[in-house]
Write a structure and sequence with these properties.
This protein is of the alpha/beta class. The chain folds into 2 domains: 159 residues, Rossmann fold, CATH 3.40.50; 197 residues, 2-Layer Sandwich (Dihydrodipicolinate Reductase, domain 2), CATH 3.30.360.10. Helix content is 36%, strand content 21%. It is built from 14 helices and 13 strands. It has an 8-stranded mixed sheet, covered by helices on one side. Strands 2-1-3-4-5 form a 5-stranded parallel sheet, with helices on both faces. Strand 3, helix 4 and strand 4 form a beta-alpha-beta unit. Helix 4 packs parallel to helix 5. It starts with 11 loop residues before the first strand and ends in a 9-residue tail after the last helix. The relative contact order is 0.09. The mean pLDDT is 96. It binds nicotinamide-adenine-dinucleotide (NAD). The site of nicotinamide-adenine-dinucleotide has 25 residues, from strand 1 and helix 8.
């Protein structure tokens, strides 16, 4: 189980490119990297395509203003002059910029963590791989969903033959947020996603299904695709040639077949990210919306739901456990919300800001006292032979 203790001798000096105030994904990078406080330290950034906004943002999240740079080239150049300069950068910018930023960072001797889809072509990918190998650097890709440890449980069970030979692979990553073109008319982040110059040769295939494809490889490392058929559509016509829906049929080398559906026009769907692997004896199914659960369906037996954090799970899975059984995913966010409110309350108290204190809803001393009162009344009732007592 993970408990925030050091896994490496000291935190890495980390910089971010993109992921600024208006960026959709930047906060996920920071909460992921900084949660344990022992792996990364955010020391620099070129957070935004707008230099002023980027600096303002960087300072506001606690980065030294002299290390909030107007662009990534300046950041790489200036950081290289410092003894305590960044050693790794994360790239959280639109797709079309990944290749050049990645290349510049590696050439400057930095490790790179980059958003998906990594680049436009696999040729670019191979070139960057060679460069990283030559310079002795890592390139990581933020397929964030793949960090869910229940996927490692699936991997272990498949490896142990628990579902038999894999016959059918059913993958889905869909949502309905782009059911109309209102999305690109009102959001900059959506506008570039349907512009081939910035998004690359695909929309949902790259934006969504690269995650699910990687997750399928993670849980079934031996399964190799032999051939595939992709049928893609632009239901919102202005998105053509980029697709907002696609079906992919797959034939695997071992004779298994697969189907992937990816879509951003699955109207009404807020999270259709599912993986079902059907074997000759049983099936496994995981759904992003129920991240604590893994269904194990053995033919002829009652369906089992395996629950995150339980000791019956594989050790590979539990090695990545953070919360422990009983505590569901989402609890870390809840704790972060509570801690932020404690900080706001402390700050308001220090400044004698009574208005803020009056309006802030958080578990304060009264909530603590109320908890004790609850216990006192319950115990009094129980000790009186489980009788009704007035709540005092
Ligand atoms: P976005 O348009 O919301 O944000 C992009 C950010 O990058 C903004 O802050 C913008 O100012 C900044 N930026 C743009 N060009 C820059 C440059 N040259 N230098 C510095 N900053 C620059 O985009 P987004 O939705 O956050 O997506 C960014 C990337 O993350 C994309 O590749 C996308 O596919 C990926 N993404 C991944 C996930 C995931 O789950 N891993 C989720 C969402 C997005």
């Amino acid at each position: 189980m993970l408990n925030g203790e050091k896994k490496i001798s000291r935190p890495l000096r980390w910089g971010m490119i993109g992921g600024g105030r208006t960026g959709q994904v930047g906060y996920k990078h920071r909460t992921g990297a900084l949660r344990d406080n022992t792996a990364f330290q955010l020391v620099a950034g070129a957070f935004d395509v707008d230099p002023e906004r980027g600096k303002d943002f960087g300072v506001n999240i606690g980065v030294d203003e002299n290390r909030c740079y107007p662009d990534y080239k300046t950041m790489i150049k200036e950081e290289a002059k410092r003894e305590d300069g960044v050693e790794v950068v994360s790239i959280a910018t639109p797709n079309g910029t990944h290749y050049e930023i990645c290349k510049a960072a590696l050439e400057a001797g930095l490790h790179v963590i980059c958003e998906k889809p990594l680049f436009f072509t696999s040729k670019e990918g191979r070139e960057i791989k060679d460069l990283a190998e030559k310079n002795g650097k890592i390139v990581g890709v933020t397929y964030g969903f793949s960090g869910n440890q229940m996927l490692l449980q699936m991997r272990a069970m498949i490896e142990q033959g628990k579902i038999g030979d894999i016959r059918i692979v059913e993958l889905q990553y869909t949502h309905g947020f782009n059911a109309t073109d209102k999305a690109e008319k009102t959001s900059d982040a959506q506008k570039w996603r349907v512009d081939p110059k910035i998004a690359g040769p695909s929309f949902v295939l790259g934006d969504l299904s690269t995650h699910t494809y990687y997750m399928s490889q993670l849980i079934m490392p031996k399964m190799k695709i032999k051939k595939l058929l992709c049928d893609r559509q632009s239901f919102v016509g202005t998105r053509a040639p980029l697709e907002d829906n696609a079906f992919v049929l797959m034939h695997y080398e071992n004779g298994a077949v697969g189907r992937l559906w990816t879509s951003s026009v699955n109207a009404g769907c807020t999270d259709g990210h599912r993986i079902r692997i059907v074997g000759s004896k049983a099936s496994l199914e995981w759904w992003d919306s129920k991240p604590n659960e893994l269904r194990h369906e053995v033919q002829g037996e009652p369906i089992q739901t395996l629950i995150r954090g339980m000791s019956y799970l594989d050790e590979q899975c539990n090695a990545d456990e953070r919360l422990g059984a009983l505590h569901s995913e989402g609890l870390s966010d809840a704790w972060a919300n509570i801690y932020l409110k404690f900080a706001i309350a402390i700050d308001a108290k220090n400044r004698d800001d009574r208005e803020t204190l009056r309006n802030l809803v958080y578990p304060n001393i009264d909530a603590g006292i109320e908890g004790i009162r609850w216990i006192e009344n319950c115990v009094r009732s129980a000790e009186n032979g489980a009788s009704w007592v007035d709540f005092e």
